[in-house]
Specification:
This protein is mainly β. The chain is about 15% helix and about 65% strand. It has a single domain, classed as Lipopolysaccharide (LPS) transport protein A like domain (lipopolysaccharide transport protein A fold, Sandwich). The chain has 1 helix and 11 strands. Strand 3 and strand 4 form a beta hairpin. About 10% of the residues have low confidence.
Length: about 160
């Protein structure tokens, strides 16, 4: 009787851990994919597509650490989730920290809103995007500029 309880508990733990690990496993596609065993990074070139959780990153080229879910991408990047879409020249995603840093001609497009800036930081946990440098906001018929803007994507409001 005790043996079957231990076996059941062990199997339950294995199933739960396997489910948690596979939930964060990225889907990675590119024209040219190479796994560098020395660095533990996927090296990707051409039509890069990376999907982790329900976030999609596209780029011309990228490096991905599948263990930490870190992504370094360049060349016309997009970072999408639901109706949120960031574009820019480069991105660094701190996967396990739910944070992305986007540089170079950053633009956020979303239902009647456009924010352009030199760079942006986005935190998926807090749902706050901070735009810095030459920020230009277009919302409906209103346009305005600032050096820095913080925007909450959940409440669709500026902080």
């Amino acid at each position: 009787m005790n043996y079957s309880k231990i076996l059941f508990a062990t199997l339950l733990i294995i199933v739960l851990l396997t489910g948690m690990v596979s939930a964060a496993k990225p889907i990675i596609n590119a024209d040219h994919t190479y796994f560098d065993i020395n660095t533990g990074l996927y090296m990707l070139k051409g039509n890069v597509y990376i999907e982790v959780r329900n976030r999609i990153i596209t780029a011309g080229q990228a490096k991905v650490n599948p263990a930490t879910l870190e992504v370094w991408g360049t060349g016309g990047i997009t970072v999408k989730q639901d109706d949120i879409c960031f574009t820019g020249d480069s991105v660094y995603v701190y996967g396990t920290k739910d944070h992305a840093k986007i540089d170079g001609g950053v633009k956020l497009s979303r239902n009647g809103l456009s924010i352009e800036a030199d760079n942006a930081d986005f935190n998926w946990s807090t749902k706050i995007a901070v735009f810095n440098g030459n920020v230009h906001v277009s919302q409906g018929t209103t346009d305005w500029s600032a050096d820095s803007v913080s925007y909450n994507v959940d409440s669709n409001s500026f902080l």
